[in-house]
Amino acid sequence: MSTNGNIFRYFIKLLLRGFDKSFIYEVGMEEIDRLRNLLADLPQQRVEKRLPNLFMFNTANQLVVGVSPVEIQLAHFLFERSTDRYVDEEAGEMDPERSHVHLYFRGRAEPYKISAAESGDVAVLYFRLEAGAFASREFYSFLDIDGEEVAICLPDVLVAEFRKEILDEGIEKPDAEDDTATLDDF
Fold first, then answer.
1. What pTM value is reported for the model?
2. Where in the chain are the domains?
3. Which residues of 86-125 are buried (b: 16+ CB within 10 A; e: fewer)?
4. 117-154, pLDDT tens digit by residue?
5. Which is nearest to 141 in space by CA: 160, 114, 161, 166?
């Protein structure tokens, strides 16, 4: 990660209901502030029914991660000098060279790893999970990289990790020469 003159690196460590492992992500300070604000306002957002299904944030390793806010048991906002190396042997980020998406489902400790045939399907999955408001057992289906259909029960996804470059590719505006949208535009 480029420190952009910052002397600190920031991390979010999450404990989620139903998982023995912790989830740790290196992030920018703005993502920590966004999650702090969401958690501080969580009861009011639930009353007003404007709570997102998944809280989406960017990591330093070019992932976009979504976490179910109602499943968070602990959020630990960590920092260290940028010259130090934070290592946690029981947790770590998805290898960005591997699958396009890692999904952690309610009641399952290990992620389900998927590479979609089309990056647009990854983008649709991202936006469907972020928006929430599902029917009780709503599924989203698409073809994986081998051409086999994958049907995902959206309400059961508690954590989703996306490769950012795949998402950016999937949400590019069609028929636009130089005018492309990325996740940062939304």
1. 0.66
2. 8-176
3. eeeeeeebbebeebbbbbbbeeeeebeebebbebbbbbbb
4. 898 999 999 998 888 766 666 788 888 888 888 888 88
5. 114
